[in-house]
Design the sequence.
């Protein structure tokens, strides 16, 4: 996808604050500081539309970014940060759960994981939760540029084995620094937006 227009729209905490223009939504989930904002910026060819932070746990809302007036990226609060209070984590959890289970315009969840390291227990729990509710997931392994190419497949295998990645769930190796995986990820997102679940639309795609 060629991005010609991208803008931040709203930081929402309640359904009545979500945009009402019925555009498809692509949610980004992942632990704090895994690189979701950097991924968004690379995907839309902007350096700082999605603001990155050195402070884990800073994102406390659902941040909506409208792309080409065709879809939204929705950046979810990061999980797994111990210094955030238990009460706040519970509030975040309820907000995220309500969004993921009830938002009719949600087409795909990007589960963003640091490819340099095995998935954390929180990553595994998040993937299991998404699969329990049969939600469409694409796992994105970021920071690929920090790993020697000769070790890429080893790291990909560790992620897939640790999550017990289902065959229908796509995996994209990504680098926000070098753009590795950008075209592949846009292609996968586009298929979900146009056709819904590619597995269910195989005849259409063929």
Sequence:
């Amino acid at each position: 996808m060629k991005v010609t227009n991208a803008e931040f729209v709203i930081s929402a905490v309640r359904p009545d604050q979500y945009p009402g223009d019925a555009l498809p939504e692509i949610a980004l989930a992942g632990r704090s500081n895994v690189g979701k904002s950097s991924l968004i910026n690379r995907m839309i060819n902007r350096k700082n539309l999605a603001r990155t932070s050195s402070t884990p746990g800073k994102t406390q809302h659902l941040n909506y970014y409208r792309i080409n007036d065709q879809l939204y990226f929705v950046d979810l609060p990061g999980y797994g940060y111990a210094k955030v209070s238990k009460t706040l984590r519970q509030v975040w959890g309820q907000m995220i759960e309500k969004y993921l289970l009830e938002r009719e315009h949600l087409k795909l969840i990007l589960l963003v994981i640091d490819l340099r390291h095995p998935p954390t227990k929180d990553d595994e729990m998040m993937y299991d939760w998404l699969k329990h509710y049969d939600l469409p997931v694409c796992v994105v392994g970021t920071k690929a540029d920090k790993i020697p190419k000769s070790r890429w497949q080893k790291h990909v295998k560790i992620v897939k084995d640790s999550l017990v990645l289902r065959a229908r769930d796509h995996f994209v190796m990504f680098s926000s620094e070098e753009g590795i995986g950008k075209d592949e990820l846009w292609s996968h997102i586009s298929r979900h937006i146009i056709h819904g679940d590619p597995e269910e639309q195989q005849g259409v795609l063929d």
Q: What stands out?
A: The first helix runs from residue 36 to 43.
